[in-house]
Amino acid sequence: MHRRVAFSMTIDPDGAMHDWVDLPTGFALLPIPTQEAVHLIGARAYEEVLVEIAERERPDVMVTHPPYDFLTPSGAARIRAAGTKLVAYAFDDEIFAGAYSPSRKAAIAAMYDRYATTREVPWATAPQPAVDERAAEYDAVLVGRAYPRRAVLVEALRAAGLHVVARGIGWPDGFVSRAGMRELYARAAVVVTTADWEDVAVPMVKHRLLDTAMLGAFQVAQEAPDLRRYFAADEVPSFKDAAELVARVRAAIADPVSRREMARRARARALAEHTWTRRFPQLIAPLALGEPRVPVGRARLFDQLLLALASRAEASGRIAAAADLWRAAVERDPDEPAAACGLGRCLRDLGDRKGALPFLARAAAVEQPLCASALDCRLPSYGVGVGLGRMALFPPAAEATILRVAALLELRRVAEAAAVLDAIGEPALARAVARAIVLDEDPAFAPIRSRLARFSL
Length: 457
What we know:
five-stranded parallel sheet; Serine Threonine Protein Phosphatase 5, Tetratricopeptide repeat; Rossmann fold; alpha/beta; 13% strand; 3 domains
């Protein structure tokens, strides 16, 4: 039986720490989307989600990241009283811990079964596929918020005549997705990774260092006391100021063979030494874990949180993020129609029509509300979300059925689409489907046209 670990991270694929945890054999992971959740429902409600997960799903270990876990002493006590070991992995204490008085530090430490920083348990990350190796189109790339200290570095590189791309919140070209970041890294001679936060120099390694190495991109990293704890100088060279950064970038551009070899060595070290599979035993070593714990049910607050997050992501046009969140909700409750329809809808948008079909079929097959299933009408969302689908149709099965038929026709699986239409028994559903599906004059669609015409009568 696996031990289950609830681990704070982001389910959003464009989040800073998406999918960054792999666990050793014998452990199963429950990702908890902290950053997204707190912004949506607030700190107090998020704490209640953590408490219910501990009480209902009973993970053996819960890993949070102070100060971003927003836990109160009473909330932490309830989690621990439920039998879950509460571990703080405080990776930004170099930034924030100076604000804690000795008495506050003692009180914080007392909240957890273990409080560890990246000085005690170094950063780790999950294995990721390497970016493609290409001829460099950019001299340097920096991805991250446009802090003043980073702007100085970018300006120095550009003043030296180098072609630099800077992306992230605050830069003129703005935010870049995770997929976009990978593309930039593949096209750059050098990735610049920094040790800073806002206008503060942070004397510590940040997650981006390991992330970049794991992606197999060559990087020049800002000096930090613990940098060589992770990578040797012939794997990740460093810079102490803008002038040295310019020199490092120029040297790397001049020697593509060496920089690619250094990137390969850094990736090999990241895979061998800096994954959570290797690091997690160190994090939980001081804990006295008993027998693996058995859940008593699902945390319903967490279920609803995932639905709300997915609905918001999709309503704001972030389809890849919505797909991952809908999938997380479906994995917890396969019979949740909003999640199944949402996942199918987003997969179709992303070009995976075949993958969308089983989820759309599942959504349409779920028991329908008795009153709403008899109605053929629309209930506008006024921008609130997509919980009733993007079309916001009654009957509730209409959108899943419409999209399922559309996906089958796009795949040229006309006979299967006809069979779906033949199975419709509710008059309201038939009318909604007939109104929504518009066909071109392709003769192959004749069986569909005849059925839709019959529905419209």
